[in-house]
Design goal:
Blueprint (H helix, E strand, L loop, with lengths): L4 E4 L7 E10 L2 E10 L5 E6 L11 H5 L6 E6 L18 H14 L4 E7 L2 H6 L2 H4 L3 E5 L5 H7 L4 H7 L7 H6 L13 E6 L8 H13 L3 E6 L8 H27 L1
Length: about 260
């Protein structure tokens, strides 16, 4: 299994090759952006975008935030977006776009550590896939953890949610299938919750709901709340959170390495 097409992108990076890749997910040809280091791959970071369509689209600048010389960064566009076949399903069948790509990457780099980063809408995408892929850690950043709560809080998004998922009272099965918390127990990979206290796009209550659940089931997690920040942190706060994320990934990997030695 491999990508069926690779398109070199116009990015002048000294350490990585930047490609738009095409691969099969279900019956569709879907695309993503892949930054592959010239040095051996020791870490894979999968960035799960937020938004829909051109809003929140995958951008190179965002992916560069997670880069180091041995890190491969991959971001799926999701079906129905940016030239990918199919229709965006908002944490439905489009979850296969994540797991299909990961089958390719884990086969190519079986020794690499894997970390998911789910931002905004990508939060629920990650919560529904990170255990299936058996990642080493999951970072949910300003992310949606409860779709019903999102429907209640974001009146301006109700039309989109009704169109893509349905009304919570009429499409109970669709919402049940997207209930990520029901599947997260004490044996889940460690989770880092990052959220801004002034986030108006995804309220911090989404983070609190997730934290409460993780505490109740005894899962491993850590929080980093920036109470004066919105959905996207300001420059200095952005530096702070990226430092926390890098430290988190390094600590998880160090712990895993110690486990292997034991």
């Amino acid at each position: 299994m491999d990508f069926i097409k690779r398109k070199l992108m116009p990015a002048d990076l000294q350490t990585h090759r930047v490609e738009e890749v095409t691969y099969k997910a279900d019956q569709f040809n879907v695309k993503g952006l892949c930054l592959t280091p010239f040095l051996p791959v020791k870490r894979i970071v999968v960035y799960l975008r937020g938004g829909k369509g051109q809003v929140g689209r995958v951008r190179l600048a965002r992916m560069l935030q997670f880069l180091n010389k041995n890190t491969l960064v991959f971001a799926p566009y999701y079906r129905g977006n940016n030239g990918s076949e199919g229709q965006d399903d908002f944490a439905g069948d489009d979850l296969n776009d994540v797991t299909s790509a990961m089958r390719i990457l884990t086969a190519r780099y079986p020794q690499a550590f894997i970390h998911f980063v789910g931002f905004s809408r990508g939060g629920i995408q990650g919560l529904l896939t990170f255990q299936k892929v058996n990642v080493d850690s999951y970072i949910i950043w300003g992310g949606v953890s409860d779709l019903r709560l999102m429907y209640e809080e974001r009146v301006d998004l109700r039309n989109i949610l009704r169109r893509m998922v349905g009304h919570p009272k009429k499409a109970k099965e669709a919402y049940r299938q997207r209930d990520a918390l029901a599947h997260i127990q004490s044996d889940a990979p460690p989770i880092l919750i990052v959220h801004g206290g002034k986030d108006k796009q995804v309220g911090i209550h989404q983070a609190y709901v997730l934290e409460t659940h993780l505490k109740e089931v005894g899962a491993t997690y850590k929080t980093f709340y920036q109470m004066q920040e919105g959905h996207v942190p300001r420059p200095q706060a952005m530096k702070d959170v990226l430092k926390i994320i890098q430290s988190w990934m390094a600590n998880v990997e160090a712990y895993k390495n110690n486990e292997k030695k034991l």
